[in-house]
Amino acid sequence: MSLRHALLGLLADGPASGYDLTRAFDGSIGRYAWQAGHSRIYPELAKMAEAGQVVVDETGPRGRKTYALTDDGHTELRRWMLHWPEQANVRDETVLRMFLVQSLEPEDARRLLEGIAAHCLAEIENLRPVMEADDAEHRPGDPLPFGRLAGEYGLRQYEAVHGWALWSLERLGAAEPAGTS
Amino acid sequence: MSLRHALLGLLADGPASGYDLTRAFDGSIGRYAWQAGHSRIYPELAKMAEAGQVVVDETGPRGRKTYALTDDGHTELRRWMLHWPEQANVRDETVLRMFLVQSLEPEDARRLLEGIAAHCLAEIENLRPVMEADDAEHRPGDPLPFGRLAGEYGLRQYEAVHGWALWSLERLGAAEPAGTS
DNA sequence: CCTCGACCTGTCCGCGTAGACATGTCAAGA
DNA sequence: TCTTGACATGTCTACGCGGACAGGTCGAGG
């Protein structure tokens, strides 16, 4: 149950409501790491409160309840972060498509890989300015902005996939020339 | 329902039994892309047969049934491969941990990142010889071995994460020196 | 004053999934 | 001949999860 640990990790940054957490999952964490809708988040927060890992910190207008980590919650988060299982849970549609590229006809595969490469380039050009702006504001000694490490991960991820797509195109071309002939 | 498409993709490589497919998921596809146990695979194959995407190709000893793709199955696979949704399903515990590194105390974060870097290095050194052996046997014009693209993906993936971990360590060190002073 | 849109919390249902349970066959080697 | 281990197929149950359903509050602007 990694949703619980995702929530613990997000709450470690400060108290938040179910609504806040739901919006957090709409951002990069939901795009690269783990998805969750509010319909899973509210019940899970309730269970975590029952288990003593979080407490209701304060109640605001519109029935807003912010949750805060307890010591138990902190301990559990740390335990989970430092204890890596042999085989982690992975379920990634994009990677699955990459594994199955070779099931396509060569022309289809080529078109697909070209699409992937172009998409990665576009994402890289979106991401890089944001990261560089972050860095420009950053002075040595400041804490890193939350998400800076994640952003860097995303950037390097796209660069790796881009390189892979180009390499694959080259190999495919070598194995079975089609555009030429 | 990506399990269905994973199965279609694997069957595109040739007929296989539920047992064969289960073992395929124990390999790299289950490690990087999508996991599935036999308890999901057998019912799904039955449903796919009902939907006309696969047929029982031949029956062997011990009740073995090999399934083969139909034209419908091929069409559906191709449709899924070429049609990329805006937001793909992702659920990756490892990436989640990376997103939450900053929730740890600096010393813990540093230890964790060092562990990640070391782990990546080890995997790279496992993978690279296998890929190079593949390449040595490969002559231009031969079809690529199934899994060669996937292996290259894994290799580049580990290299990217390795680079990210080193970069993060450096940034963390700059932001909050601990080993020194 | 009123309306609209963002805020905010929840439940319900059907399907996907993991792990345990159940059953039986065949081949190789002791 | 017997035992062991790989081969092989299935079901069952409890839980995770996404999308729809449901209801209510507050602030800003017309």
TrEMBL record, chains A, B:
<dbReference type="Pfam" id="PF03551">
    <property type="entry name" value="PadR"/>
</dbReference>
<feature type="domain" description="Transcription regulator PadR C-terminal">
    <location>
        <begin position="90"/>
        <end position="172"/>
    </location>
</feature>
<dbReference type="InterPro" id="IPR036388">
    <property type="entry name" value="WH-like_DNA-bd_sf"/>
</dbReference>
<feature type="domain" description="Transcription regulator PadR N-terminal">
    <location>
        <begin position="7"/>
        <end position="78"/>
    </location>
</feature>
<dbReference type="InterPro" id="IPR036390">
    <property type="entry name" value="WH_DNA-bd_sf"/>
</dbReference>
<dbReference type="InterPro" id="IPR005149">
    <property type="entry name" value="Tscrpt_reg_PadR_N"/>
</dbReference>
<dbReference type="InterPro" id="IPR018309">
    <property type="entry name" value="Tscrpt_reg_PadR_C"/>
</dbReference>
<protein>
    <submittedName>
        <fullName>PadR family transcriptional regulator</fullName>
    </submittedName>
</protein>
<dbReference type="Pfam" id="PF10400">
    <property type="entry name" value="Vir_act_alpha_C"/>
</dbReference>
